[in-house]
Design goal:
mainly beta; globular; 283 residues; two-stranded antiparallel ribbon
Amino acid sequence: MKFFPRLIVGAFFALAPLSQIVAQNPGKTLAMDFRTTIAVQGAPDTTVMIGHAFGSLDKMRLDVTGSAAKVSPMMSDSVSMIVTDSGKTITYLDAKKSQYLRVRPAEIVSQAQQMGGMKMEFSGTDATVDNLGAGPAILGHPTVHYRVTTGMTMSVSAMGQQQSVKISSITDNYYATDISGVLNPFASMNGSDMANMFGSANAEFAQKLKAVQAKLPKGTPLRASSSATIVSQGQTRVTTSSAEVTALKWVNVDPKAFQVPSTYTQIQLPGMAAPSSGAIPPK
């Protein structure tokens, strides 16, 4: 049964990475350069992305180049993402095509459930966090090492068919202990994007993950690695991701960086017809 991986699991990975940011230097915003690699077991190529992230408490922007087409619904090797509402709303920008796509991950799941009478049930939800002590110095900054473990099983019924999908992940984050600002382009690795996507449908998982997030440092991670496993129809797919900050600085940000240019055209999420696409109109 192919409808579930295409509409849900595929969308889940397409929406990473998400970010969270809090600027704590008056008049300045923390910005960083980072490098992310993603490898899928059995796939011949490794996805490599170079990114730049900056923002404020309520708005954040990532500019990503490289193999972004493999994880972005815009299907472009150069994509910008404006993240608002703590990751609940994402606006993708494609400068080459002058197009943008605005989605809410949770609505993708909700609308997918409405398509063809899809029904989703969850079990075995789990989310834990461990403080593993001091980590290595990165870019000259001391770090502390935290590990987040998540998991759930989804039973999906649609069009007279039924499928069970098991998702689990283990993520290691290394937070700087001497940086006053908070900027996290690796939030998707510790499960925050799963909470945004499945939270409305799986309240138990969202509650457990919220407790995990509360135990994590309110700091900037300089390195993160994750192993995510999906088991479905007797097949197992393992995706490993790693990301590391390569530069940090405080900058002045132009407010226009968080706006969609007036010349851009809005598009719908590929593979899902409007209006049931998860896309929302411009504000």
